[in-house]
Write the structure tokens for this entry.
Amino acid sequence: MQITWGASTSSYQIEGAWNQDGKGPSIWDAYCREEGNILHGDNGDVACDHYNRYAEDVGLMKDIGLQSYRFSISWPRVIPKGTGTINDKGLEFYDKLVDTLLAQEIDPLITLFHWDYPLALIHRGGWLNPDSPKWYADYVSVVVERLSDRVTNWITFNEPQVFINEGHLNDFHAPGLQLSLSDTLRAGHHVLLAHGLGCQAIRAHSKQVARIGWAPAGKTWAPASDQPEDIEAAHEMTFGVPNKDLFNDPWWSDPVVLGHYPEAGIQRYGNAMIDFNPEDMKTICQPLDFFAINLYFCESMAKASPTGPETIQYDGNIPRTMMDWPITPEVLYWSTKWNYERYKLPMIISENGLACMDWVQADGAVHDTQRIDFYASYLKELKRAKDEGVDITGYYAWSLMDNFEWSQGYRQRFGLIHVDMDTGKRTLKDSAKWYRNLIATQGAEL
Ligand code: IFM
């Protein structure tokens, strides 16, 4: 299967060095310090210490045979207060990381925002501030100015659904707000504007032809059967706005790619819907080169009924990961197929993987057979979509290494590489060796 094979991480989840070399605090630094927010009181102060061990980590990527590595930039490491003074030491770190990757012929794919927002900006209203899209675009300009002589692939935002819905409506993620639905929609609108201005900033500052995408979380319903009406019901649920929250796909990706909010959302949000300048949509809807998506599981199943699509929850019999997420390989088929049909952009799976109960066993290895089985079954579904003509250009396992899993702290291990969080020792899991073979053979076994 001709595809770019990679693995993903994000800055707060692996870098550590939370106050090293002039980095400013992020909202996650603050949120983790509030008692009760994170399991076991964990935080990302040290995490995998990737900031200091990046060379070793790139060596392991090379050992696995990764063709590309997706990582994110920590905004407060680059601009400690979010706007204004630039921290050259922070940029130097990413400079060195990019150079080390390129020396090993690993192509960098940079996510410009994966949730670690500068704390100083929250004190200025955060994403509710109408200037927030411009703050983001200015930060993007600084990064692109510095790295684009070597980097061509950029993702503007990771999972806007999660950091806006869970961080601004539900107090489950940083910054821990519980805004009204209307204010959350306003914050979301500013993120969309930031995406648009960010795209413009990349194109204006890039020293090479840039390739730009964004990476929403995919929320997908699986058809309850292969009957056309059930497939239609699942499609309708996937591109609907079933709840009065912002955890759905079309609210985010329709404006970005199609240039308008979905009617279903405007109806659903009713009186909470915000007013905005119609010209904003021209800024939000910028030409994109690819559509990245993070896929883990199907939400539930859907079947047709006389009153519209009916949801069928997965029962206790379905296999589940440590996160309690159902194992549903078909998500890679339906989601890529439907998003490709709707948005007509080449697709990248920017995250896919699972948390298992892994430990270093008596023989010194990590025998994560469940992860191998998971990846093999999911990738077969990816191949099915690709064989049917879906233009899938990249696949990134989540994650390169065990890391800080947000409110779950270090309890959930998603890595191809085991990390002992006390010593920092890295051990390739069996799945990493399996992935190495898969990459070397371009997925011949699938
Ligand atoms: O760890 C997260 C990542 O930061 C965003 N996508 C989902 C992953 C697993 O929960």
